[in-house]
Protein 1
Amino acid sequence: MERDAFLVTGGNSGIGFECARRLAREGWRVAMASRDRAASAQAVARITGETGNDAVCEMGLDLGSTASVRQLAREIAERGLLLRALVCNAGLQTNVLRLSSDGYERTFAVNHLGHFLLVNLLLERLRAQAPARIVVVASGVHDPRITTGARSRLGSGARLSAGAALHLGSHPTRRRALADAGRAEHQPGRQGR
């Protein structure tokens, strides 16, 4: 019988790597999705070697590209992954204004739009494995009170829009999605099981 899987975006380094390693150590099937496939392959080898769990894999994902996000969702369906949880961890911050391949400011595209699309594309798969979880890892990048990165060049309205998108995209929609997936809970900034 196939094991339930966790999908961790940005799982090849930092918090995402530690999350993937811990899940693998506990016996879960783990798929790490990121842009840098070589770094992900190294992370898979390290986790497999440390944990003995051979059900760890890497998948390609550029959250700044809607085509890449859609491709990952198709690949997950083709592999038949029994998705129990999605950990939206990947993120970036730049101090230069750059646009995604779809024309959006890159930080906003990767940190917000890409994950929002990914959650929506995988929602039915998560519901099928209820109780399922969607975990969103966040940082101060979206905080309009902190002026860092390219946001200062875009003006305060853009900074507020990024913060509002995080909350508008996650609050009512996320609560409904989690309720449907068997876990009706919305606790921004709080960790727990």
Note: The beta strands are 5-9, 29-34, 56-60, 83-88, 133-136.
Protein 2
Amino acid sequence: MKYRLENGLKKFPLDMKKSIKRRFFDFYFMKGSVRGEIIKNYVSVLPLEKREILISLSFDDGYLSHYECAKLLHSIDVRATYFVVTHLNKLKDKALISTNLEKLQEMAQMGHEIGSHGCTHLNLLKMSTDRVINELKYSKRFLEDNLAQEVLGFAYPYGYYNSRIIDYVKKFYFYGRGAGAYFFEDSTNTNPNRYAIGSLSLKNAWWLSKVLVLNSRLCLLFVFHCPESKEVKVLFDIIKDIKRSFPFRFVPVSYIAEMQEEG
């Protein structure tokens, strides 16, 4: 099924079997000027100068390849948040940044926020209390000892958590970030709870421009894992387009957390 053009806008076919991620790339591989006009069409309901739209880019697992993403974002003055698995050398057969502390330290020196993703990236819901506490405490200690700065945030492995896990996270961290696994997570973070900060994955990012019409203040947080070089380039081009065209602010996750209630 081919796309239809109506009023100059590219319409996505209602084919649920088609990958959402593919739609994202179809949309954003368009010429930048066309892409900008489509975004402007969606956000025209409320003048941009009356909006406060914060965007946070969050990278999970702490892959060694994240270092290159960090350098690219730093080159356009965008600070992201990297949630690092601390006590493994590899995850999904890919090297982790915790094996190269010099690069991790350099990422922090660039101004990026470094948070914890646990020691071993296991499901906390299946752990005993002692193991949960160890995952939270020792991952935080590892990062703070090696970065010489406070670690404020924790990203729940696989996005799985409950009230019990939140109670433990509160003992060690200022905020907790989810991954869209639960209905009560607010992906636009208009209902504040800094231990259930909502997020969107790359495959859902294509509807960013539609979401912007809903509220005058949004805090949008996008989660990435190990993007391929092709995806990194697309992400980089999108961010440059947004920064050039719109008064959106790119901030670390901790900035959003500071505006949330404890919950």
Note: The mean pLDDT is 77.
